[in-house]
Design goal:
- Helix content is 0%, strand content 48%.
- It is built from no helices and eleven strands.
- The chain has strands at residues 4-7, 10-13, 18-24, 32-39, 46-51, 58-60, 68-73, 78-83, 92-100, 117-118, 122-127.
- The strands form two sheets. Strands 2, 4, 5, 6, 9, 10 and 11 form a seven-stranded mixed beta sheet that branches. A four-stranded antiparallel beta sheet has the order 1-3-8-7, with no helix packed on it.
């Protein structure tokens, strides 16, 4: 079992930057694939980015590629999402997700169904 706690959300102007953090409990953090998802009001939760347990593999949704960076610090049980050049359409609740992984297959972790553990979410609002 792993518990996740996101932080770092807030209000930012379009073109600005924001960094999110997700702190995980447990002693086997490096065994978990981590993902970030987002959900805008009235919409489904959608994939943003994922990172393998050792941090060596990352993958992004086309809508954020080149603007967002996912990273992790396994010594601190934390995964990060650095967001830059933010747009109003990035406004959403951002969720951190974790899944215990033996073999990292990207296609498994670009869907919310690939994760059993979720944080409570943090609001990101981008004003125009």
């Amino acid at each position: 079992q792993v518990n996740l706690l996101e932080s770092g959300g807030g209000l930012v102007q379009a073109g600005g930057s924001l960094s999110l953090s997700c702190a995980a409990s447990g002693r086997t953090f490096s065994s978990y694939t981590m993902g970030w998802f987002r959900q805008a009001p009235g919409r489904e939760r959608t994939f943003v980015a994922t990172i393998s347990g050792d941090g060596g593999n990352t993958y992004y949704a086309d809508s954020v590629k080149g603007r967002f960076t996912i990273s992790r610090d396994n010594a601190k049980n934390t995964v990060f999402l650095r967001m830059s050049n933010l747009k109003p359409e990035d406004t959403a609740v951002y969720y951190c997700a974790a899944e215990l992984t033996s073999t990292y297959v990207i296609s498994m972790y670009t869907s919310a169904n690939g994760y059993h553990h979720w944080g409570q979410g943090t609001q990101v609002t981008v004003s125009s």
